[in-house]
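User: What would this chain look like folded?
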Amino acid sequence: MTNPIPSRRLVTFGLAATLCSPGLLRAQSLDALDAEADAADVKQGVRRNASSFSHQDWRDHFDALGVQTVLADTTSRALHYWSADGSDYRIYPTSVPRREDLTKRGYTKVVRKRVGPDWTPTPNMIKEDPSLKYMPPGPDNPLGTHAMYLGWPAYLIHGTHDTRKIGRRSSAGCIGLYNEQIEELFGLCEVGTQVRII
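Assistant: Here's the prediction, encoded as structure tokens.
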């Protein structure tokens, strides 16, 4: 009895399935990680997309404007900006701290601004990941193209070159924005801008 020769269609299908398998497995593993994050978010009543942005009124958080004002909402993963007179309101999607113990909440202000920031990991970051090391400005730098330093040591509002982080719990404590958006916000905010993280 002779072995039948497989049809060209069967061979093509088998080859395509073989080539796609690693990508499908990778996507499934990322989906599993996202599903875990989603389950944690559901417990806290958080939605992970742009529709979870909630309108904020500065009067709910600050006694007065008079200077530019920033509110970073870690629940809806959005940063709200108001001009000094309240006439300009903007909202940006953000990355937020990946764990509750990394999240700092309260009132502070912008104390310093820097274009092309360099990055030095904190001792706690190095304890978690000993491979971390100083990074000069550039495409591998986790602070992106612009950074605004807050009154709390090691807490910043900054850009990111890794756009997958936006909308997720992915930072070591900072609030991250797309590079184009942090550049815009950087231009709007002066040193002294009042900030609240909720």
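Residues 21-35, 44-51 have pLDDT under 50 and may be disordered. If you want, I can go into more detail on any region.
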